[in-house]
């Protein structure tokens, strides 16, 4: 029966397209969260496939911390122009100006946690009943427990101990007024699957994922880019290195990998050989053992 | 395509579930598979080393790797299904790691619903226990095509062939009562790694494959029903653009079987017939498509078709009925209400239904039917009859895991209260 066999990437693709179509069918005002990172780029690619030749029947939503790499923003605007999709942007700076959140202080200050408030406000303002995210179960131990369709109460909170059972491919998106769903179409993809798929489908990526020379500094064993709003600690110094991003968050929490990989094939080789996890360079996960679970309960991505 | 990456692109996906408690060595086994296949990373290992030390474990506690929630780590138990991933050059694996105690039957059922393979652990010292029976029953109820019984802790019974053979015989005795297609046995020691990834030198009497070798080679592509074409319509694609003014395609994932351009199609429930005009997949058009692909199908004739309808081949129709017999696993604290009403979901269709009969409750520790006690509560498995407000187009679960399955949803709370397998 090998005539009816598809490889693991095509099977994952079919599953994700199924999930995305389910969202479009079961919800009235879904959005797809878009960060400009590889996972959301792949997710958007899958959405285009799901509805072709029609346009994607929902908007994208980018929560801009104001601390993004310029390359990411340029890539986003480019992609929207090429595909004719619509990307809404909401700014953490606005939440700060409105006094809804207070900027963190100190040397490791980050706007990562503040994003949750901006995100929940945006979902409220846009009356979204579902938000798709590019989270993957292999990323982090709390994410390993996440459903495809993840129910959120009226406060946007996740209750990990009381999740709806999810069987076969039947997804239950029913909810009460004011509640919403987070949906993770690429739940079952690993970092390697994402890279292989990008290779197989020849998907264009922001230049940050490929090697480039950059002035960086080392903090707690992680190479970081120094943006103008960041401060060096005594003893930290800027050195020029060949680096690339393995994952892209905002500048304050994205560790850079020393690498000379300038094409997808070499990146796949690098991912295959690496002995640390993708989020090992993410300062936002290092805050405590349950940093991700705690943020997710509050309504984080 | 270059040589160095082409290998990765030809892997099959295998989903397996592991049922068992910490005492069975389930977490150790998963830890062993992940560790030996290099799917545990250094920073993860360091994190569990630190955590093990903090809670006072002498050795690295691999269970901490699978227990992802704070409450699980604090209490040292697995509460919910966790998904784990690893790959070898041959296959990519998705593990649905489920808790094994009876109060988590619903989580086991959830993990089992998508699995190709079930791994059931048996402690070599204790042999076949009540829970072995329970796990085997759930695997057969959910029609997992392959079951691998891992007789674990062989190191604690001096790697005795006799012990292994006795357990094997006992399980053969049970499995004759169950509906399972393919059963395998592997004697292992998860702790020492015997017959998990590497062959054991201490059990030369065993000439079968190691567990990983089995997982890599079990034939799974025929697990899918390739005979009966079933295409539940999920989403109607209508671009209404200048380029595609009249395009009307039906998006969905093929549940079973295959379809070619030109095939005669019947649309359910309307019964209208037509032929497949194109099978579209993004910018490509396909001559043939098959399960489990997600595609968009267009037809020769303009017919009113919407989500919840099903396209099938005109010479192979499913059963259309409003009265459905099924086995359910109940998920909710609120018990089944005789003549109670629920929302029923079957593929992309949704309707309401009423429980018209509770036939019996299954004692899953003894496999006996209990026709006296009809109180069906959390984690219970029972046979029911439902009356549905509109006809559903069904196959039996034995024939088709997609068109043979339903979920029930509580109309008040919107919670998923049951999984049903159509008889």
TrEMBL record, chain A:
Record's compositionally biased regions (Basic and acidic residues): 276-301
Record-stated family: Belongs to the PAPS reductase family. CysD subfamily.
Keywords attached to this entry: ATP-binding, Nucleotide-binding, Nucleotidyltransferase, Transferase
Region (Disordered) location: 275-301
Domain of life assignment: Bacteria
Record flagged with keyword Nucleotide-binding: yes
GO molecular function, a single term: sulfate adenylyltransferase (ATP) activity
Organism: Plebeiibacterium marinum
Domain Phosphoadenosine phosphosulphate reductase stretches: 30-255
UniProt GO BP: sulfate assimilation
Keyword Transferase in annotation: yes
SUPFAM superfamilies cross-referenced by the UniProt entry: Adenine nucleotide alpha hydrolases-like
Pfam families: PAPS_reduct
Main EC class the enzyme belongs to: transferase
Enzyme Commission number(s) from the entry: 2.7.7.4
InterPro entries: PAPS_reduct_dom (IPR002500), Rossmann-like_a/b/a_fold (IPR014729), SO4_adenylTrfase_ssu (IPR011784), Sulfate_adenylyltrnsfr_sub2 (IPR050128)
Name the record gives this protein: Sulfate adenylyltransferase subunit 2
TrEMBL record, chain B:
Enzyme category, top tier: transferase
GO MF, any single term: GTP binding
Keywords carried by this UniProt record: ATP-binding, GTP-binding, Nucleotide-binding, Nucleotidyltransferase, Transferase
InterPro entries: CysN_GTP-bd, CysN_II, CysN_NoDQ_III, G_TR_CS, GTP-eEF1A_C, P-loop_NTPase, Small_GTP-bd, SO4_adenylTrfase_lsu
Tr-type G domain boundaries: 11-223
PANTHER family: TRANSLATION FACTOR (PTHR23115)
Name of the protein in question: sulfate adenylyltransferase
Organism: Plebeiibacterium marinum
